[in-house]
Structure formats: C-alpha cells, structure tokens
Design a protein that fits this description.
Structural class: mainly alpha
Order of helices and strands: H
Biased composition (Basic and acidic residues): 13-22
Number of strands: 0
Region (Disordered): 1-22
Largest sheet: none
Helix content: over 70%
Distance between the termini: 225 Å
Organism: Lepidopterella palustris CBS 459.81
Strand content: under 5%
Keywords: Coiled coil
Oligomer: single chain
Protein name: Tropomyosin
Shape: rod-shaped
C-alpha cells in the first residue's frame, strides 16, 4: 500500500507538473497567438505598403519614361539647334565674305570711275584737238582748193598767152 501511495504521490506530482506545464504551454500558446496576430497585422500593413510602393514605382517609371522621351526630344532639339547654329555661322561667314567682296568691288568701281573721269577728260581734250585739226584741215583744204584754182587759172592764162 505504501507503494500505491508513493505511486499516487508520484502520479499527483507528475499530474501537477503536467498541469503546470500545460498552463505554461497555454500561456506560451496565447503569447505566440498574440505574436502571430501582431505579425499578421504587420504583414497586412507591409503588404499594403508594398502595394502602395509598387503603385508609386509604376507612377515613377511612367514619369521616368516621360522624362526620357522629353530628354530624347530635347536632345534632338539640341542637335537641331547645333545644326542651325552651324548654318547661321556659315551664313554669317558668307555674309562677311560678301561684304568684303562688295567693299573690294566698290573700291574698284571708285577707281574705275576716277580712271573713267580721267579718260573722259582726255577724250574731250582729244576731241577738242581733233576738232581744231579738222578745222585747220578744212581751212587748209579750202586754201589748197583756192590756191589750186588760182594755179589752174594762172595756168589757163599762161596757156592763153
């Protein structure tokens, strides 16, 4: 009987230990369930944040795409601007060359005008001299004709004598 009592005492101790462990495990389960609930809420919160961030990423990717297309257009416009600036520079150089050519031509024209004026004065002087020579020639031709007429008359008179 004593064995039975000892056995019973041992069983009671074991039952008390088991009950104590069960209480511990129940407390641990409650703690883990609370922790699990907190983790699930955190997961839900993080999932929501993740969805919001994914939406934000999509929005930002769209903006990046828009900005890239704008940058490409800007780059294209920049190359067009550079091309137009080179054309402007070439045209300005052509204008400067044309201005130099015009100045040179104007100088040559002025020199030609001066020479032309000089030669016109010479031509007028030569024409005046020619007119004088022609007048002298006509006068001499008239004198010659008169002298010849006189000579012919004189010869005719001599022949008549």
């Amino acid at each position: 009987m004593e064995q039975i009592k000892q056995r019973m005492t041992a069983l009671r101790l074991e039952a008390d230990e088991s009950a104590s462990k069960a209480e511990e495990y129940k407390a641990r389960v409650k703690s883990l369930e609370a922790e699990n609930t907190a983790k699930e809420q955190e997961i839900t919160s993080l999932s929501h944040k993740n969805q919001m961030l994914e939406a934000e990423v999509e929005k930002l990717e769209a903006q990046v795409k828009d900005h890239k297309s704008i940058a490409d257009e800007s780059s294209h416009a920049g190359s067009q601007v550079e091309s137009l600036q080179r054309k402007i520079q070439l045209l300005e150089e052509e204008v400067e060359e044309s201005d130099r050519t015009i100045r040179d031509l104007n100088d040559k024209l002025r020199q030609s005008d001066v020479k032309s004026g000089h030669y016109e004065r010479k031509v007028h002087a030569l024409e005046a001299a020619r007119d004088q020579w022609e007048a002298k020639y006509e006068e001499m031709a008239k004198k010659y004709a008169d002298t010849k007429k006189d000579l012919d008359n004189f010869i005719a008179e001599i022949d008549n004598i």
